[in-house]
Write a structure and sequence with these properties.
32 strands, Immunoglobulin-like, mainly beta, 9-stranded mixed β-sheet, 476 residues
Length: 476
């Protein structure tokens, strides 16, 4: 492995003991950074044009921006009601491979298997509540932007959730994230394993939300912060352990308050029930190490014990580029996933050969839903536990040792590293505070999958970091 500093360049390679392969070792000792202010970027052209008709099903969808965008942010399609990505398609069956131009001003979306025939295709960039907003290189988020076009002669698109696209939303989430790296029980995800999130997003047509707060049971009122350029107010807390999460955010009444321009304050109580869903656990971990894509195969897991009538489970398979290639439930296929299911069949030829995918399984306990309490707003309260694991197709290929080929300090103060490695290969990013021989302690930070071009970008979002920092990426 080699050593990177901002001034010293590269040092001689050193052997790494053990069965794992490590990349170059990066050391960051960075001076302070003053974030720059930036105007929100805009979409200046979409192809096909908004309102176009008779569009061929093999058409590539293109978005052009007025500024250079942060191409390291993964383009991820939403799972309505489950996960809010930064692009949303209707019908939900639209699945694309996404590619940025070299200057970061053009995003190309190549539909997998083509677009649905005789349908209205609608798209939304940075939908309400997006967890990874599309932003420019200075961190300013794109405003929610929508459009649609028709393939063939008219047709009706699929409405995956029944909620109008221009509605606002308000929500309270308590979540746990886990990683399964063997047949044994999953372990807390190395990056932000536990979180409590409250959010409010204004309807497109207004009235705009001007302030918001949440009060947990027995706790003090906590203001939600306005997110620039997004019409969203957000509060997020990330306790380090599940015990700390339960202690800080127990069962009971959570009161969400928000005010819209010209309107009386909304006071919305949501009663979170006792307990939480079990941690999802895949039961055929070894069987998906080498999947034959020419044959259908099963994904299996332990049951969602104690599930109620309002609860649900959801499964998603994403490729190395962050695109969804299979999901359940999917109302636009249609594909069902009953809350009592413990397996699902993935059809033959759904996945590509010799690739690595990430599988997510979520158990969702819903304690509040409403589309009528506030005009043009959808409300939800949910406890969500998700487990992710990798899935390999064909021989999977051998993941070679990678190399850090770029590094910088982002305007938000977080280090960003660019890793070159085996396309589709999975690497564990590890961090240490010093290098002191055998006493060096490495901690897992994130599991990173290299895209089809052979690169992946990692941002260390852990708060409270102090320089210097040492990073390595480990492949198995």
């Amino acid at each position: 492995m080699s050593l990177i500093t901002l001034s010293a360049g590269f040092l001689p390679r050193l052997p790494l003991p053990g069965p794992r392969l490590a990349t170059t070792l990066a050391v960051l000792s960075l001076a302070s950074w003053t974030p720059l202010q930036a105007a929100a970027p805009q979409v200046i052209e979409s192809i096909p044009a908004n309102g176009a008709t008779g569009v061929a099903v093999g058409t590539t969808v293109v978005f052009k921006f007025d500024q250079a965008m942060a191409t390291a942010i993964p383009v991820m399609a939403s799972m309505p009601g489950i996960f809010v990505g930064n692009i949303e398609w209707t019908p939900q069956s639209v699945s694309c491979v996404y590619e940025w131009s070299g200057d970061g001003k053009t995003l190309t979306c190549s539909p997998i298997g083509g677009l649905p025939a005789n349908a209205t295709i609608s798209w939304r960039l940075n939908p309400s509540g997006s967890m990874f907003p599309i932003s420019n290189t200075l961190g300013a988020a794109l405003l929610t932007t929508t459009g649609s076009f028709q393939t063939g002669q008219g047709g009706s698109g699929c409405d995956p959730d029944g909620i109008p696209d221009d509605w606002g939303s308000y929500s309270v989430f308590k979540q746990g994230r886990y990683l399964q790296s063997s047949a044994a029980a999953p372990t807390p995800h190395p990056e932000t394993p536990f979180a409590f999130i409250a959010s409010v997003h204004s309807p497109t047509a207004g009235p705009d939300v001007t302030e918001a707060s949440v009060t947990p049971p027995g706790g003090s009122q906590q203001a939600l912060d306005g997110i620039p350029f997004s019409a969203t107010f957000l509060f997020m807390s990330t306790p380090a352990t599940l015990a700390a999460l339960d202690a800080a955010y127990p069962a009971g009444v959570y009161t969400l308050r928000f005010t819209q321009e010209g309107e009386a304050q909304q006071v919305i109580p949501m009663t979170m029930s006792t307990g939480h869903p079990p941690i999802p656990h895949f039961t055929n971990f070894e069987a998906v190490r080498q999947v034959d894509v020419t044959q259908s195969f099963l994904l299996t897991w332990d049951p969602f014990t104690g599930a109620g009538a309002n609860d649900m489970q959801a499964l998603q398979i994403m490729d190395a580029s962050g695109d969804t290639v299979f999901m359940a439930p999917d109302l636009c296929v249609p594909r069902e996933l009953p809350v009592g299911a413990t397996s699902i069949e993935v059809p033959a030829d759904t996945l590509a050969d010799n690739q690595t995918y990430t599988v997510y399984l979520a158990f969702l306990q819903r304690f509040y839903t409403s589309t009528e309490t506030v005009t043009d707003m959808n409300g939800v309260g949910m406890v969500s536990f998700t487990t992710e694991m990798t899935l390999s197709t064909g021989s999977g290929g051998e993941t070679e040792a990678g190399e850090f080929i770029g590094y910088r300090l982002l305007p938000n103060g977080n280090p960003e590293l660019t890793l070159a490695g085996t396309p589709g290969g999975t690497y564990t990013i590890q961090r240490a505070g010093s290098l002191e021989g055998d006493s060096t302690t490495w901690s897992d930070v994130e599991m990173l999958t290299v895209d089809g071009s052979g690169t992946a970008v990692f941002e260390d979002t852990e708060p409270g970091k102090s320089m210097p920092l040492f990073y390595r990426a480990v492949a198995y």
